[in-house]
Amino acid sequence: DSGVTQTPKHLITATGQRVTLRCSPRSGDLSVYWYQQSLDQGLQFLIQYYNGEERAKGNILERFSAQQFPDLHSELNLSSLELGDSALYFCASSTLSNQPQHFGDGTRLSIL
Amino acid sequence: KNEVEQSPQNLTAQEGEFITINCSYSVGISALHWLQQHPGGGIVSLFMLSSGKKKHGRLIATINIQEKHSSLHITASHPRDSAVYICAVVGSQGNLIFGKGTKLSVKP
């Protein structure tokens, strides 16, 4: 058990819809990372937050947004969903940016 | 050309064999991660290193910053080591860039 909790585990929705994925980091970790893993693109870094502030940005679409709340949990919002957004979305956390990351079990998003 | 290249893409070994997975990168990095992804999808961080060598049990990771190359070694491989091993580098902006992974299958 990594200590990182992601909800929901599975999500099935339709094109055009909006969903919110939630991540609770390991106790004491200030950094939260979001990743997308699709069959054709592999793992891709989306965005990192550190203590509520955006720290680094990767290949995150404009239709996607994220935030980290004062209690350090984070949410990834995906809107105007397309079939290609079907993927596994992982959250990871670490104490500092230069420390190993601990991964959640992921949320599997299926767009019908 | 991908910024992070792993080889081989697929690897089949017999139980007990010594295994090496290689990772080469073309960008400046501050650190490199080795991750293990199990068939069920879960990801475990094995190592994070920025220089030299780290060892944990039967796993050894090395990095050569000058040559922009890292290796992951597994000694006395076991079927439970079967997984996808992923190399990821931390770029100058703090972003992670992933290799496509090496799928390892260890036969009893």
Note the gap between the termini of chain B. Answer: 36 Å
Number of helices of chain B: 0
Oligomer: heterodimer
Low-confidence stretches of chain B: none
Distance between the termini of chain A: 31 Å
Percent range of helical residues of chain B: under 10%
Structural class of chain A: mainly beta
Question: Greatest contact pair?
Answer: A-B, 25 and 21 residues
Helix content range of the residues of chain A, please?
under 10%
Radius of gyration computed on alpha carbons of chain A: 13 Å
By helix and strand content of chain B, what is the structural category? mainly beta
Globular, elongated, flat, extended or rod-shaped: what is the shape of chain B?
A: globular
Task: Give the helix tally of chain A.
Answer: 0
**Overall pLDDT score of chain B:** 93
The number of E-state strands of chain A comes to 11
H-E order of chain A: EEEEEEEEEEE
Major sheet of chain A, described briefly?
7 strands, mixed
Tell me what you see in this structure.
The complex is a heterodimer of chains A (112) and B (108). Chain A is mostly beta strands. In chain A, strands 2, 4, 5, 6, 9, 10 and 11 form a 7-stranded mixed sheet that branches. In chain A, 38% of the residues are buried. Chain A is globular, with a radius of gyration of 13 Å. Chain A has no helices and 11 strands. By secondary structure, chain B is mainly beta. Chain B starts with a strand and ends with a strand. In chain B, strand 7 and strand 8 (69-74) form a beta hairpin. The radius of gyration of chain B is 13 Å and the shape is globular. Chain B has no helices and 11 strands. In chain B, strands 2, 4, 5, 9, 10 and 11 form a 6-stranded mixed sheet that branches. In chain B, strands 1-3-8-7-6 form a 5-stranded antiparallel sheet, with no helix packed on it.
